[in-house]
């Protein structure tokens, strides 16, 4: 059983299928006995993944900066809610408290979080699995572009191999569990 950090969209105007994906992810994660670590928001896919985990009996840890609490977007139903003084300290706490990272479809905040944990992994600053869920080809354009980095010598092949790209929720959790042993 692991603490799995999920990065995903906070948008309130998403197509329902993305919210459903987040709900399914939270549910599957909880059914497998894992704890959800999240950015502690109650909006968009962030809210859906936490609600999905709790509906399946899972434990949820939200980590959110005070500024977002003040905007009333905190996941007040979280089993544990850690409040930080800023976005940087929040990200550090999310990384420290997690055993693995799973990125679902998202926007700029999601990409920022993915690239930080992946970069840290390439520098051996942690040895935690980093998995990207490319559901329905959401990330295929990005993945294609990333695949050009090593041939162009902008990244090393071993660094590229640290990002595990999968196309379904079960495959994502299987990949994390296999790497955690
Ligand atoms: C209107 C309002 C203040 C909405 C609340 N907005 C947010 N609440 C909580 N975490 C967020 C928020 N925006 C970005 N994040 C962080 O960035 C990611 C989502 O950003 P995005 O929607 O992909 O770019 C999340 O994983 C979360 O950790």
Automatic annotation (TrEMBL):
GO biological processes: cytokinin biosynthetic process
Enzyme Commission code: 3.2.2.n1
GO molecular function: cytokinin riboside 5'-monophosphate phosphoribohydrolase activity
GO CC terms in record: cytosol
Segments passing through the bilayer: none
Reaction(s) the record says it catalyses: N(6)-(dimethylallyl)adenosine 5'-phosphate + H2O = N(6)-dimethylallyladenine + D-ribose 5-phosphate; 9-ribosyl-trans-zeatin 5'-phosphate + H2O = trans-zeatin + D-ribose 5-phosphate
Record key words, sorted: Cytokinin biosynthesis, Hydrolase
Organism: Micromonospora pisi
Keyword Hydrolase: yes
Protein name: Cytokinin riboside 5'-monophosphate phosphoribohydrolase
Root EC class: hydrolase
NCBIfam families the UniProt entry points to: Rossman fold protein, TIGR00730 family
